[in-house]
Amino acid sequence: MKANILERVISMSSAAASQLAPNGTLRAAINLANFLLVTGRSASGDPEGVAPDMASAIAEDLGVDIAFVPFATPGELADAVTSGAWDIGLIGAEPARAEHISFSAAYVEIEATYLVLKSSGIQSIEDVDRPGNRIAVSARSAYDLYLSDHLRHAQLVRAKGLDASYDVFVRDGLDALAGLKPRLLSDVERLDNARLLDGRFTAVQQAIGTPLDRPAGAAYLKAFVEAAKESGMVRELIARHKVDGLSVAPTHS
User: Fold this and answer.
1) Does residue 50 register a pLDDT over 60?
2) Three-state SS at 37
3) What is the band of 253 on the pLDDT scale with cuts at 50, 70, 90?
4) Is beta strand 108-117 parallel, antiparallel or unpaired with respect to 176-180?
5) Residues with Cβ < 8 Å from 76, sequence gap 6 or more?
6) Which of 82, 12, 54 is nearest to 249 (CA)?
7) CA distance 214 to 8
8) pTM for this model (two decimals)
9) Which residues pair with 134 in a beta bridge?
10) Percent of the chain at pLDDT exceeding 90
């Protein structure tokens, strides 16, 4: 990654660095549960993938060191912002999280849909939100937050993590399993009698956030993300890590 690839935000770098990495090290919170954005570990144990590489590019552009702060779930990552545990967080941007986090626009999008049994009477996304339907979901994921705001009739059954939501769907015979499409495609292969519904109920917007009290840092991150998309850097990272199911988010002027 070339240093200072984002020429148009260089003028912001000094003020941003003083807010985002006041001690010379950028603490980047990484959601380990997102298997599309975190695809491995380095020999030293640091997370590898599109999200860690985005964080490293920011640190390089600011001229500071990087330290990864891993979290097992996105909910834990979001909660930790109030304790000052991290400087930037790579996480799905949802209104419920914006109470304490200032988000950039999305740098990638991930489609979310439902898995149902082949024998299910549910034939479309619209059929899911019906009285009596129970939907398994990974608790406090970005799509859980979305569904919590948008479902009117169906009941969400929350489990801690992707594997647990799959298990509760199978064990308790629920009506649908909500999830990111790439993960659900692998779940379909585990269940002979399952299918995915066409379309999506949302696209999870993966963004970069910082605590609300860092306005210069927030402005820098917004500019960085837009330039990273326009320059082709995000597309490059997706190709480098050979990730299926990620798409570059639209740019914003």
Assistant:
1) yes
2) coil
3) low
4) antiparallel
5) none
6) 54
7) 20
8) 0.80
9) 155
10) 86
